[in-house]
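Why do we care about 3D structure at all? Because function follows from shape, and shape follows, mostly, from sequence. That is the central idea of this module. The next example makes it concrete: a single protein chain, its amino acid sequence, and then its structure expressed as tokens.
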Amino acid sequence: MSSILNEAIVSGDWDSAAELTRQAVESGADPRKIIDEELRPAMVVVGERFSSGQYFLPDMLMAARAMNNALDVLQPLLAGGESTRIGKVVIGTVRGDVHDIGKNMVCMLLKGTGFDVVDVGTDVSEERFIEEVRKHNPDILGLSALLTTTMPLLGSTIKALNEAGLRSAVKVVVGGAPVSQQFADLIGADGYGDDAGGAVSLCRRLVGR
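And the structure:
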């Protein structure tokens, strides 16, 4: 049953994902175990396949829908609103940049693999990022820049975190088409994701999962 459920998520079979989840619950499976041992690992596979070029955006969208259908079955069964999250991420595209496709894919995979995600959108100022970090106290701050002209804003946001006394409280990961590991190191980021799957793997490592 469980391996079939995992495959239903990976393949984006949303109808089967919901039905198999219901069957697992009816057979006595713990909802938390279904999430931790079946759903999240399935989305990790989806991220890996996207990174390797086996999957494309439509495949990811179908897998995300299958994941959400399964979660819809499980969430009411989690006692007392028990959290199923492994960490929290605040994420946005820096000031002057309104590109969001890559960021949105990262958000989708982060949610699917167990993160609470606060997406603050695009064209986000350094001050707004500071406000959101203070408000949500995330484990990770994700910064995206899709233009060479907005890349410097990644560094200025990290500088603003330092000046606000918040840098030690949050890990910072960066990404976007023009960004590189070398640039991430130069501005003092904690990590660099070269694509959506890589960004999610990085975030999991940073929270020890």
